């Protein structure tokens, strides 16, 4: 990899951003995450004439520079010039000259101050003649102190594996996945993390192996794409799940799902297994009534609201449901990524399908373990896991 160091004035850099010769948001970047206060501190540093860390750019095949490291700094500079925030003259150590500029936007500054700002030069390190893994490794090393999420680190690995996941995430969001429809957004690449793990799970074919971030990172690093049949199955699963979720929004008053990454992962496994066996209307009911029941046993929902009347007889006729949902909630915490927690959540979703649909044919083998004589749901899950070798295969 060849690294060329140069100095460019802000005026030149901003013009190149506007003319799209410098791309602030390449696929491997993590989005704009700096707060306004952090942006103001950067502008304050520039106004003081302090040096800021160099910007690392990758020259692509079209000779467009893509930001590898320094995206947030360049975004802050662009936003300041475009008057999206003002100067904070109270930042310590207080500088009298900057204090006089407090609350002024770029457009309000004296022309001489604007000129001085635009003449500030940044150190630019342009990367050329690189192997695919070299920019990713540099990005990781540069950002180690920034506590990047595993998905953010993986996203810097240029190659087919990353592109596959990015396309799936884009599809997921285009279908309507967002905080309103599933309970959380793609902040810090949360969707990338779940979908890549889901792909890896289908590749493994079972739930018994604990999948670590290192397992998935190795596929990115070695540029080992997932098989097309796996990508196709994941696409079908995402479509079925989101379309069902959106149906549930229209059907139920309780239309705010509060699932997390662990729960979504389990729902995707369940959807993959059952998308050919159930229709989207039933799937919508399962998602919303199940998530409502989880909140109900937590005591976060007072009373049964319109659309969820079926929940009362379900709990009355199946005395183990309360225990079951409590276990699911416990096993769905953010830290519950161990294989046993994943297997227990998977069994519980299948049990709920049997109970809610009143159709033992969905899984007659599993239905034999269910009765009102269950004293310990934990023990029942343990027995099911052992006797049925649950998780040994994802498909029924």
Question: Mind sketching the topology for me?
Answer:
Blueprint: E1 2-9, H1 10-18, E2 22-23, H2 36-48, E3 55-59, E4 65-69, H3 71-81, H4 96-99, H5 111-118, E5 121-128, H6 133-143, H7 150-154, H8 160-175, H9 179-182, H10 190-204, H11 213-221, H12 228-251, H13 261-274, H14 280-298, H15 311-317, H16 321-331, H17 339-357, H18 364-367, H19 377-387
Parallel strand pairs: 2-4, 3-5
Antiparallel strand pairs: 1-5, 3-4
Helix pairs in contact: 2-3, 8-10, 8-12, 10-13, 12-13, 12-14, 13-17, 14-16, 16-17, 17-19
Task: Give a structural overview.
By secondary structure, the chain is α/β, with parallel strands linked by helices. It folds into two domains: 2-148, no CATH class; 160-387, no CATH class. Helices cover 54% and strands 7% of the residues. It is built from 19 helices and five strands. The protein has helices at 10-18, 36-48, 71-81, 96-99, 111-118, 133-143, 150-154, 160-175, 179-182, 190-204, 213-221, 228-251, 261-274, 280-298, 311-317, 321-331, 339-357, 364-367, 377-387, and strands spanning 2-9, 22-23, 55-59, 65-69, 121-128. The chain has a five-stranded mixed beta sheet. Helix 8 (160-175) runs parallel beside helix 12 (228-251). The chain is elongated. The mean pLDDT is 90.
């Amino acid at each position: 990899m060849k690294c060329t160091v140069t100095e460019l004035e802000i005026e030149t850099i901003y013009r190149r951003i506007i003319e799209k010769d410098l791309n602030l948001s390449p696929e491997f970047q993590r989005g704009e995450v700096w707060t306004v206060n952090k942006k103001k501190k950067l502008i304050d540093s520039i106004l003081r004439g302090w040096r800021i860390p160099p910007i690392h750019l990758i020259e692509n095949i079209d000779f467009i520079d893509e930001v590898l490291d320094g995206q947030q700094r360049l975004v802050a500079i662009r936003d300041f010039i475009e008057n999206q925030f003002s100067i904070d003259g109270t930042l310590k150590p207080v500088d009298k000259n900057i204090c006089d500029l407090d609350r002024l936007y770029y457009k309000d500054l004296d022309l001489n101050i604007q000129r001085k700002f635009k003449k500030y030069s940044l150190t630019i390190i342009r990367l050329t003649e690189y192997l695919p893994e070299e920019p990713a490794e540099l990005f990781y090393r540069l950002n180690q102190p920034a506590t990047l999420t595993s998905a953010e680190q993986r996203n810097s690995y240029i190659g087919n594996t990353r592109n596959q996941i990015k396309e799936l995430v884009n599809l997921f969001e285009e279908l309507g996945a967002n905080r309103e429809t599933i309970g959380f957004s793609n902040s810090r690449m949360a969707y990338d993390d779940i979908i890549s793990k889901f792909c890896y799970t289908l590749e493994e074919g079972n739930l018994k192996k604990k999948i670590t971030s290192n397992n998935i990172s190795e596929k990115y690093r070695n540029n080992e794409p997932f098989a097309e049949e796996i990508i196709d199955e994941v696409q079908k699963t995402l479509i079925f799940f989101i379309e069902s979720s959106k149906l549930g929004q229209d059907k139920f008053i309780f239309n705010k799902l509060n699932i997390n990454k662990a729960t979504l992962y389990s729902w995707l496994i369940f959807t993959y297994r059952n998308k050919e066996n159930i229709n989207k209307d039933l799937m919508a009911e399962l998602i919303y009534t199940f998530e409502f029941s989880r909140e109900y046993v937590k005591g976060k929902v007072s009373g049964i609201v319109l659309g969820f009347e079926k929940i009362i007889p379900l709990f009355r006729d199946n005395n183990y449901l309360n225990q079951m949902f409590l276990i699911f909630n416990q096993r769905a915490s953010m830290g519950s990524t161990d294989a046993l927690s994943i297997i227990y959540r998977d069994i519980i979703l299948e049990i709920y399908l049997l109970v809610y649909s009143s159709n033992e044919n969905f899984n007659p083998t599993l239905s034999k373990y269910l009765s009102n004589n269950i004293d310990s749901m934990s023990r029942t899950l343990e027995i099911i896991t052992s006797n049925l070798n649950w998780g040994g295969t994802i498909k029924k």
